[in-house]
Amino acid sequence: MQASQFLVTSTKPPAACSPLVPNPAHHRLTAASSTVRFRQISAVAAPPKPKTHSMPPEKVEVFKSLETWATQNVLPLLKPVEKCWQPQDFLPDPTLPFSDFTDQVRALRERTAGLPDDYFVVLVGDMITEDAIPTYQTMINTLDGVRDETGASSSPWAIWNRSWTAEENRHGDLLRSFLYLSGRVDMLMIEKTVQYLISAGMDPGTENNPYLGFVYTSFQERATFISHGNTARLSKEGGDPVLARICGTIASDEKRHENAYARIVEKLLEVDPTGAMIAIADLMNKKITMPAHLMYDGHDPRLFAHFAAVAQRLGVYTAHDYADILEFLIGRWGLEKLEGLTGEGRRAQEFVCGLAPRIRRLQELADQRAKKLKPPLVKFSWIFNRELSL
Length: 390
Ligand SMILES: [Fe+2]
Ligand SMILES: [Fe+2]
Hints:
Layout (H helix, E strand, L loop, with lengths): L5 E5 L26 E4 L19 H6 L1 H7 L24 H15 L4 H15 L1 H8 L15 H27 L4 H14 L9 H28 L3 H31 L1 H14 L16 H12 L4 H14 L10 H11 L1 H17 L5 E4 L5 E4 L1
Antiparallel strand pairs: 1-2, 3-4
Helix pairs in contact: 4-6, 4-7, 4-8, 4-11, 5-6, 6-9, 8-9, 8-10, 8-12, 9-10, 10-13, 12-14
Bound molecules: fe (ii) ion (2 copies).
Keywords: Chloroplast, Fatty acid biosynthesis, Fatty acid metabolism, Iron, Lipid biosynthesis, Lipid metabolism, Metal-binding, Oxidoreductase, Plastid, Transit peptide
Pfam families: FA_desaturase_2 (PF03405)
InterPro entries: Fatty_acid_desaturase-2, Ferritin-like_SF, RNR-like
């Protein structure tokens, strides 16, 4: 029986799960599990059909007219392959005599010895998120007016997407090899999770609309910059400067990518302020869905929520970061002072510019409620089913 024949009717969010860092796994159709109750979809009203192709067709011209601009202002933010780091720069050298290679692996294992299990759960979740790169390239290629029409198109939008994917592809490769050599995690369960996740895909609600798509990627790249920056800080504090350098190097790629996507939205705000402002409000109103929200390991149907709760507890990515990112982008895009808006555009502006304090207030209330509850213990297959408190 297909999962799409069922509607989730009851999922209780975990205590540590923030209502403000959305965990769409709570609200979406999901694979069968003993802890989730179903009823057949035929017995209830059909869920609303996802919106698609929401950008008016004439706006495809906006992206066509920005091609020269993109070539001059976006593509230079890519790094030539010969100037890029590669995973092998950070890993034990397998071409060395065997005993020298194993010495390097031993040193790697000794450095990670001081890092706790909960750190590894977050690092694994980050690696799995990176490893689902085929999904993200597909997602960008759903966007009208900027997709790669042939697979090797010479449009700057398509060149960006392929080269961005190629840069991102190194992130998962490096983290995966590092985790494999560390011996601290169950690679088989991690590999299964990656396969499930790529099969499941993602739906960030971008509706084939590049306005929504580029707002989404601006937000997400900053979120990954923050997250990898925090895993770098924690590995330095935990005694592994090499892993700190790995996470910091990935974070700096994310920053460069954030800059490219934010620059595109900045340009859209210049050429079509109302259209871009409404897109920002639309996506923030839906809440930014995390790219790995459909994560599953074959056992835990709320794996993403549990991973996100550990990341929140460790301070790697929190609801406060979500509000910080929003405030940062409001400042970067000058949204408070944006002029030339229609009435609808002004309402969108008012909504977005007032959102961060509301998010913070609601999060503080959620934090206070969570403090009164005993954090649940959850087993993670990635660390051989050892339990962690959320
Ligand atoms: Fe990445
Ligand atoms: Fe990224």
